[in-house]
Automatic annotation (TrEMBL):
Signal peptide: 1-22
Source species, domain of life: Bacteria
Protein name in UniProt: Cytochrome c domain-containing protein
Keywords: Electron transport, Heme, Iron, Metal-binding, Signal, Transport
GO molecular function: electron transfer activity; heme binding; metal ion binding
Domain Cytochrome c: 24-105
One protein family per Pfam: Cytochrom_C
Native species: Arenimonas donghaensis DSM 18148 = HO3-R19
């Protein structure tokens, strides 16, 4: 019995050391995403220079969206506009945007 309890207790303590990820509010995320529609809301929008198609973000995995926005925020992903946008968001706002985008389909 002790063999089972010790690993379980160790795992519980390890998990307690990490703060829980913020739960996103999709309604607030929808309001926050409004600014993003200038690029991500235009069908087949292509950036002028350098030329690339703006990616779809609606329907993406929530955890991926949080990770991507945090990477822009920290400067780990390079795109000046996305970095500026991400830096303006709190962790909760990033979670909200990710919750909204992961809940929609056929959005850009």
């Amino acid at each position: 019995m002790k063999r089972i309890l010790l690993p379980a207790a160790s795992l519980a303590l390890a998990l307690a050391a990490f703060p829980a990820a913020a739960k996103g509010d999709a309604e607030n995320g929808k309001a926050l995403f409004y600014t993003c529609t200038g690029c991500h809301g235009i069908e087949d929008y292509k950036n002028a220079y350098p030329t690339y198609r703006v990616p779809k973000v609606g329907g993406q995995n929530e955890a991926y969206l949080v990770a991507a926005l945090n990477a822009y925020k920290k400067g780990e992903r390079k795109h000046p506009t996305m970095q500026a946008q991400a830096e303006s968001f709190s962790d909760q706002e990033i979670a909200d945007i990710a919750a909204y985008l992961s809940s929609v389909k056929n959005e850009k």
